[in-house]
Automatic annotation (TrEMBL):
Keywords, in A-Z order: Carbohydrate metabolism, Glycosyltransferase, Transferase
Domain of life, source organism: Bacteria
Name of the molecule in the record: 4-alpha-glucanotransferase
Renumbered residue ranges of the record's region Disordered: 79-103
Record's catalysed reaction(s): Transfers a segment of a (1->4)-alpha-D-glucan to a new position in an acceptor, which may be glucose or a (1->4)-alpha-D-glucan
E.C. number: 2.4.1.25
Species, as recorded: Streptomyces sannanensis
InterPro entries: GH (IPR017853), Glyco_hydro_77 (IPR003385), MalQ_N (IPR048458)
Assigned protein family: Belongs to the disproportionating enzyme family.
Domain MalQ N-terminal beta-sandwich: 92-138
Length: 697
């Protein structure tokens, strides 16, 4: 009982419910290991008693929690303030650092507070004092200005005739400008553009980055850097362009996979040549402003990049003195490697400017939202963020998932989680900075595994994923910071809430205006008939789509190609015939329903018509945003990522292709009749013809 009480005080679960009415206990050894990472000794019964006594004593003495949240426009004080002893005096120091005195529980004070992250000071009559971070947030994140539709695409997979072997920010700007102007699209949602861990070969997954705070310069369009036109040694650049042409041709015409490492090798050399050109005074001033604005975070990131070039991409294997970003050895190395540090700072600046240009292109094309960026759930343990923010991460732990119907052993994603106690103690500074950077040039932000704002499954190093446990975060504080930063950026927020979701999470997110993610094949009346969920029963607060990067394309689903692929790779959990029968029954069920709704006039055996019917159905729902998986528009059957595989399948390395598997350029894609026939479905939705309660496009 003592261990359970101690764990509960620190947000560590001692059991979990994988399904209604079923409780699974957590091994005591796991709980002890997790508590140890949080600085709590539970190694023996005596240690548990001592730690429990210390925790209870600290709680009794504490006047304020580490973080207090106040939701506007309420004039009532937060519960933590309302429960203070009578006569307690309060002072609030706003973000502008000017002190603002306040009396005890003055309602007017709370109603008039500006949104922001302030400091709350309390002086109790008994002599106790306390300080807390006070997060004052608007009630909800911004919402899409009317109903809208747009494309979902993995940027690396979208090559144009100018790409250097993978899609880039120039291609993104072109896609946004074209789809906004020609198709009336309101957004383009892309994969995370986070900085990757360098290496050979580098991990191609965009969901296991070195840093979530800065984008990867591999996405740069080199020719769009202003200094490019002033390079005098054109021969070197021309030679690199020839190699880039060969990379592009290999992917588009010869069946080669996207090779991120080869692309970066060429771009790095080209950018070093371009970087030798002196910028104009105005450009230099803009760069200096960027350095000042980004501050220590950028300096740390660039320093890690420079050190990784010398010592390798895993900072745990660096010389001992360099493992600490604040050590004298690191400071000396930063000085010695000044040119390389500056190079990586400039790459971050150039990437930021091209991201800004892509968002401007989207908005100039009339997009209501524009770019939708993606936030991965974590970072690589050996990468830049884990090095620079070591105190914020739980050492020896990895984020994962408990066993479920699809993964009997559970999952270990190898990403170190944030420590909830460290976040609270810092006033959520790492989290705030992360969100602010991602929303700089975004009309919306998608949060992968948004349930992680509430709790995460921690797997101790050396343990099986099933031997992990849930660790809880201060969800109210996490949501308040999210709403505040979205409010400041004017950005919509989308939560990826697929799979097993804890009770109450979707309601809490919806209350704050966070849109969910609804995928057609998963939307059934699970509590009743288990038949396809009628379109009018779908939630309004969501992005409705037919598939995601981890699921089969719609064509593959309709033709059952995804079953054959999984069988070929040995991924089926039951006999092939049984799997085929179940899949055929599911597809037939949906096609019959689409036919009954009058959405499939082409007939069940018309593949392109069936794809269009799926999207007609999505437009029947009240969803605020409808996402078109771009490969669906051209009949691509190959998934971009096949969970459960590594080398067995070319995850994250495939270009967008047509129904025959022939890779397509952006220029070819925008001209294909199949795409335009699909988008005619959206053109047919004239203002005023949407579903009940929906706003017009």
């Amino acid at each position: 009982m003592g261990l359970a009480r101690l764990a509960a005080m620190h947000g560590v679960a001692t059991s979990y419910e994988p399904s209604a009415g079923r409780t699974v206990p957590i091994p005591d050894a796991t709980v002890v290991m997790v508590l140890a990472v949080l600085g709590v000794d539970a190694s023996t019964p005596e240690a548990v008693n001592a730690s429990l006594a210390a925790a209870e004593s600290a709680a009794a003495e504490r006047l304020l929690p580490a973080t207090v949240v106040h939701w506007l426009p309420s004039a009532e004080p937060p519960e933590a303030v309302a429960s203070l002893p009578s006569g307690t005096r309060l002072r609030i120091t706003p973000e502008d650092r000017r002190g603002q005195p306040g009396g005890e529980r003055q309602a007017a004070l709370w109603a008039e507070l500006p949104p922001g992250v302030h400091r709350l000071h309390a002086d109790a009559p008994d002599g106790r004092t306390g300080t807390a971070t006070l997060v004052v947030a608007p009630p909800r994140v911004p919402q899409p200005p009317g109903r809208t539709h747009g494309f979902l695409v993995q940027l690396y997979s979208l090559l144009s005739g100018r790409s250097w072997g993978m899609g880039d920010l120039g291609d993104l700007a072109d896609l946004a400008a074209w789809s906004g102007r020609a198709l009336g699209a309101g957004f383009v949602q892309i994969n995370p553009l986070h900085a990757a861990v360098p290496g050979s070969p580098a991990d191609p997954s965009p969901y296991r980055p070195s840093s979530r705070r800065f984008p990867d310069p591999v996405h740069l369009r080199v020719e769009d850097v202003p200094e490019y036109t002033r390079v005098r040694d054109r021969a070197r650049l021309d030679a690199l362009l020839e190699k880039a042409d060969a990379l592009r041709a290999g992917v588009l015409r010869e069946g080669a996979l996207i090779d991120r490492d080869a692309v970066w090798e060429l771009k790095r050399e080209a950018l070093e040549i371009v970087g030798a050109v002196l910028p104009t005074p105005g450009r230099r001033a803009a760069y200096c402003d960027f350095l000042a604005e980004q501050g220590q975070a950028l300096e740390d990131h660039a320093t890690w990049c420079a050190l990784a070039e010398v010592h390798g991409p895993d900072w745990h294997r660096w010389p001992a003195g360099l493992r600490d970003p604040r050590s004298p050895e690191t400071e000396r190395a930063r000085t010695e490697l000044f040119d390389r540090v500056d190079f990586h700072c400039r790459l971050a600046w150039l990437t930021d400017t091209q991201l800004a240009a892509a968002q401007r292109a989207a908005r100039d094309a009339g997009m209501a939202v524009g770019l939708v960026h993606d936030l991965a759930v974590g970072v690589h343990p050996g990468g830049a963020d884990a090095w620079a923010q070591q105190d914020a991460f739980a050492r020896g732990m990895a984020v994962g998932a408990p066993p479920d119907a699809f993964n009997a052993r559970g999952q270990d994603w190898g990403l170190p989680p944030w420590r909830p106690d460290a976040l609270a103690a810092s006033g959520y500074a790492p989290y705030r900075g992360l969100l602010r950077g991602l929303m700089r040039h975004a009309g919306a932000l998608r949060i992968d595994h948004v349930m992680g704002l509430f709790r995460l499954w921690w797997v101790p190093e050396g343990r099986e994923p099933a031997e992990g446990t849930y660790v809880r975060y201060d969800a109210e504080a996490m949501l308040a910071v999210l709403v505040l930063e979205a409010h400041r950026a004017g950005a919509v927020v989308i939560g990826e809430d697929l799979g097993t979701v804890e009770r109450g999470v979707r309601d809490a997110l919806a209350e704050r205006g966070v849109l969910g993610t609804s995928v057609l094949w998963f939307e059934r009346d699970w509590g009743g008939t288990e038949r396809p969920l009628p379109p009018e029963s779908w939630r309004e607060g969501c992005v409705a789509t037919a598939t995601t990067h981890d699921l089969p394309s719609t064509a593959a689903r309709l033709t059952h190609d995804h079953v054959a692929l999984r069988h070929e790779l040995g991924l089926l959990s039951r006999p092939l015939a049984e799997e085929q029968a179940a899949d055929a029954a599911e597809v037939a069920d949906w096609l019959a329903y689409l036919t009954r709704l009058g959405l499939l006039p082409e007939g069940r055996h018309d593949e392109e018509g069936a794809v269009r019917a799926v999207y007609r159905f999505l437009l029947r729902t009240p969803a605020r945003m409808v996402g078109v998986w771009l490969p669906d528009a051209v009949g691509d059957r190959r998934p971009q990522n096949l969970p459960g595989t590594w080398d067995e399948y070319p995850n994250w390395r495939l270009p967008v292709a047509d129904a025959e598997g022939r890779p397509m350029t952006l220029e070819e894609l925008v001209a294909t009749p199949r795409l335009h026939a699909l988008m005619d479905v959206f053109r047919a939705l004239e203002p005023g013809t949407g579903p009940p309660g929906a706003r017009s496009v």
